[in-house]
Design brief:
The protein is an alpha/beta fold and 346 residues long. Helix content is 33%, strand content 21%. The protein has a five-stranded mixed β-sheet, with helices on both faces. Strands 8-13-12-11 form a four-stranded mixed β-sheet, with helices on both faces. The structure holds oxa(dethia)-CoA (UT7).
């Protein structure tokens, strides 16, 4: 690829010069893993005061997967293994592992260490990244930019969360929403036409209190009192997060399209964070995008946080729903408040 020298003169380097000196990077393979155990709406109705009708009408969710004794890294390793197989990359050749999660096996070490050992990826460096439901797309951007800059030849990007570990199954407004899953992509030099094209990321920290786990961190270390008060479980202002999500989803997709001189009709597929079917339908409507071009699996897995987008992407890729050359947008919104979007050519 022809490169253009970057000016050493004072002043900003033109963006066009930077763009031409980075390598193209593509998704070479996808993988996912979910636990075997299924928790249906009927199961939840036996635990709290809820009903299948309420859950389906308000969220679109019918069932979700939950672990029995597995940790986030167990799902992450399985998803990573599958993505490496599809990419045809042996673990020994893997150079970087980035894991997005808010439910690490333990506070220290990072999940990436467990993944590196589990995959026997001896040469790989790695780290975890935390950006709640936007974690996977922040990790994808990070992995993409590091490979594009030539720092690493390839990267395994994983989004993995065991949300059941931070869910209070006595709280009906929360326990119906979440599930456990991991998804992964391998990034590297394109073999066909595919390439990652662009990213949009953002935060509004004024909304940090909208989705929180109050205790177990440095502000409120875990104690018998915090556990008794259930402060190690997730809390969410569902109504406000809903409004934010319905507004952000179309805004982020629109920004990606406008920056790249594209129209909504150019998009073959949108793969959104699977939080609530009503959010996805409202967002698609605002964009003028028919639901046939929106990937949804929230009905089967619920909200799996960082696992959600790579799980949906893997299902779409394996089922042949995404075809070579398709223009695909990924979009997320969630805790932070955070949002992110990625545009790619498959
Ligand atoms: O990934 C991070 C991003 N997170 C999200 O995107 C979540 C965004 N928020 C949501 O998806 C929705 O706000 C929820 C699904 C969480 C809640 O739906 P809602 O339509 O906003 O319901 P609500 O909170 O306004 O509650 C309506 C009623 C309340 O009863 P009253 O006050 O009207 O008598 C709740 O107590 O529904 C009641 N309710 C339930 N009833 C049966 C709340 N949870 C349940 C339940 N079963 N599980």
């Amino acid at each position: 690829m022809a490169t253009q020298p970057i000016s050493l003169e004072p002043g900003p380097t033109p963006w066009s010069a930077l763009r031409t000196c980075v390598r193209p990077v593509a998704v070479l393979g996808t993988g996912a893993a979910v636990p075997e155990r299924t928790l249906t709406n009927a199961d939840l109705a036996a635990m709290v005061d809820t009903s299948d009708e309420w859950i389906v009408t308000r969220t679109g969710i019918r069932e979700r997967r939950v672990v029995s004794g597995q940790a986030t890294s167990d799902l992450a390793i399985a998803a990573g293994q599958r993505a490496l197989e599809v990419a045809g990359l042996s673990p020994e050749r893997l150079e970087l592992i980035v894991v997005a999660t808010v439910t690490p096996d333990e506070v220290c070490p990072p999940v990436a260490c467990r993944v590196q050992a589990g995959l026997s990826a001896r040469r790989a460096a790695g780290f975890d990244l935390s950006a709640a439901c936007s974690g996977f797309l922040n990790a994808l951007m990070t992995g993409h930019r590091l490979v594009a800059a030539g720092a690493f030849a390839n990267c395994l990007v994983i989004g993995a969360d065991v949300m059941s570990a931070m869910t209070d199954y006595r709280q009906r407004e929360l326990c119906v929403l979440f599930g456990d899953a991991a998804g992964a992509v391998v990034l590297g030099e394109p073999v066909g036409r595919g390439a990652i094209l662009d990213h949009v990321v953002g935060l509004d920290g004024r909304g940090a209190g909208m989705i929180t786990t109050p205790a177990g961190g440095s502000r409120r270390p875990a104690s018998a009192a915090t556990v008794a008060a259930g402060e190690h479980f997730l809390r969410m202002n569902g109504k406000e997060v809903f409004k934010f999500a319905v507004q952000k989803l179309p805004e982020v997709v629109d920004e990606l399209l406008v920056r790249n001189g594209l129209r909504i009709d150019d998009l073959a597929l949108l793969v959104p964070h699977q939080a609530n079917l009503r959010i996805l339908e409202a967002g698609a409507k605002r964009l003028g995008l028919p639901m046939e071009r929106v990937v949804t699996n929230v009905e089967r897995y619920g909200n799996t946080a960082a696992g959600s987008i790579p799980l949906a992407l893997d299902e779409a890729a394996r089922s042949g729903r995404i075809r070579a050359g398709d223009l695909v947008a990924l979009v997320s919104f969630g805790g932070g408040l955070s949002w992110a979007g990625t545009l790619l050519r498959w």
